[in-house]
Amino acid sequence: MSRTFVGMPTFPVAAREAVADTQLRRNLGHATATIRARRTAAVGEVDDWEALRVKGAQAKDRVLADLDTYLLQLEARLTEAGATVHWARDAAEANAIVVAIAKDRIADDPTPEVVKVKSMATQEIGLNEALEAAGIHAWETDLAELIVQLGDDLPSHILVPAIHRNRAEVREIFRREMVTVGRPAPDDLTDEPARLAEAARLHLREKFLRAKVAVSGANFAVAETGTLVVVESEGNGRMCLTLPDTLISVVGIEKLIPTWEDLAVFMELLPRSSTGERMNPYTSMWTGVTSTDGRPDGPQDVHVVLVDNGRTTVLADVVGRHALRCIRCSACLNVCPVYERVGGHAYGSVYPGPIGAVLGPQLRGRQGALEQSLPYASTLCGACFDACPVRIEIPELLVHLRTKVVDDHRGGVPTPEAAARKAGAFTFTKASRLEKAQRAATAAGRLLGRRTHLTRLPWPLSAWSEARDAPAPPTENFRQWWARTRAGDAGDERGPQGEGQ
Amino acid sequence: MTVQGGVPDTSEARAAILERVRAALSAKGTHYPRTDSPEGRPSDIPAPAGTTHAVTELFVERVEDYRATVVRCPSTGLGAALAAALGEASSVVVPAGFGTDVPGQLLRERDVADVHAVEGIDAVVTTAALAIAETGTIVLDHGPGQGRRGLSLLPDLHVCVVRADQVVLTVPEAVTALRPSVMAGRPLTWVSGPSATSDIELDRVEGVHGPRTLCVVLVE
Lengths: 501, 220
Ligand code: SF4
Description:
Chain A is of the alpha/beta class. Chain A is about 50% helix and about 10% strand. In chain A, the strands form 4 sheets. In chain A, strands 1-12-7-4-2-3 form a 6-stranded parallel β-sheet, with helices on both faces. Chain A has 3 domains: about 10-310, Rossmann fold; about 330-410, no CATH class; about 415-490, no CATH class. The N and C termini of chain A lie far apart (about 65 Å). In chain B, strand 1 (about 1-5) and strand 2 form a beta hairpin. Chain B has one domain (about 50-220): NagB/RpiA/CoA transferase-like (Rossmann fold, 3-Layer(aba) Sandwich), CATH 3.40.50.10420. Chain B is of the alpha/beta class. The chains are: A alpha/beta, B alpha/beta. The interface between A and B is large, with 111 and 91 residues. Bound molecules: iron/sulfur cluster. Iron/sulfur cluster binds near residues 329 and 332 of chain A.
């Protein structure tokens, strides 16, 4: 069972650890650079990419503006098509629903188990842990998720969650762990990616053929037709969506799109933004219980769990709600200079990178220290907005959230950082004070000799220097230089402006 | 939440969520103009441009880009092309309604009660609902000749027959053309090249769980 993100340290603390991990940095640098280049090429092929982005954003905004109506429409279409729709206010309710359905279908099996296709929603609600607690084992079937799960590890990237693992490590994990949970890895397994993929194919095939219950998410849910869409590469999604008797899909209420035709826009935006491909290898679309030409085709016991878990709170924030357009493509991660260096773990949730810094505090609230630090995990350079296929203004949202974090602290005991800023304001508003401070600083600067950066300042300034390097104070400031070189002309140490206010 | 016959009753959560959504949307300063019709405005999708020579050429180029094989043949040469595409495969599953004779040892879909029985068969032949040139995609709506979904999933080789006049240029054209299939409740499978993963050090590897070899037979 994979570890969870609960009890994660604040972003700066986790980031310092991550930055010190050279393998993680190398792998991440390679991964983000490679995917960035692919994405740029795939996007460059589309003449009217900008128009497409606008259409994508508009389609999502249309859904969000009438979300109640569209949810009811989706529910009606799904029900007509033979599916059962369930509603969950929070993670606990969503888990309880899935567990209740699964238990009823497989509780009497000698080894109760479900197969899963990668879904961020189920990670968000901690479904695997809930199933485990109910005595049901959940098998992740994406290659990367399998590596993470067998390695008792945490995902580090939305798209390539095991990017922090090298091939040799993957081989070790497969050889050590596969035998404990099913078909063992072949004896002569090498660290060739093709051989490792083959080992996963053989190991999981028996589970696909045996499983009675599958759990999925959905990339899109078409309100007009009741169609769910899963976009994938490996074929494990197709296995989960067609072979078992029961299919339970956990869908966040922001996953809706209005009409069937709108899907075209997203089928162009998502693969190009995500993996940088013209199209991903496999996409499955299904509407409730399906049959083809009179024969049942795929699961005949179909459930859809619509999950709120904080989304309506995000919707109520007129600025923050734009984050609900997100289609989880991970383009913003790959262009983010902060993410590229610290990786996904430091963000402390299933949603890493710029979008995680926005969604984390919005979905989970701003009470935790980690959530309060996340809006600051950005340089506000704007690369994420440029890359985002649905034009989410992430920098604007981060500033919006920073304001909220600051407001939360108004009236209470100021943090050392806030105290430092106050002291700064006090010093800067009066020239004489500034002068005194500068004299003290340049004196300190002379003591520091040739050091150009201060990496750690004493408390309370440590609150500032913990996440930033400060340049060492110069040995002479402008006013002092002016006084030394032009003292004769001006006769006034206060410099060219004369009057300091 | 009460559970009746394995089905939880979530009507209370349903009412609460809808209530929260409505409250959130009626918040002051909402950025969204609420539209009158729940259908909203459909995106402006261009009408299908029709298949030209350039479109089929583009399709072939893009399919080959995914390291899938393309075999081109006239309609009279389909049998021979299928034999070539199936190569070494000794057992082949054939969907109901697949109109062409297939060489080799055959399993007919009508004899397959449960798709799990297809496990162990080497290859599958299908037709397609349509194909998309720009992205090198074939789309199955699992109508006659295409089989239930499991048929084209479990075998290691998928041979897919596409007629040149089924190739559309763009994704929006394809989505528009697929509307009747979706309204009829059919599932769709979009296939762009063989199964692939880049999960290990970003090396693209063909074939994890789906067919590791995809061969498109283009009938011109
Ligand atoms: S915020 Fe935009 S770029 Fe980032 S994952 Fe979501 S859709 Fe993709």
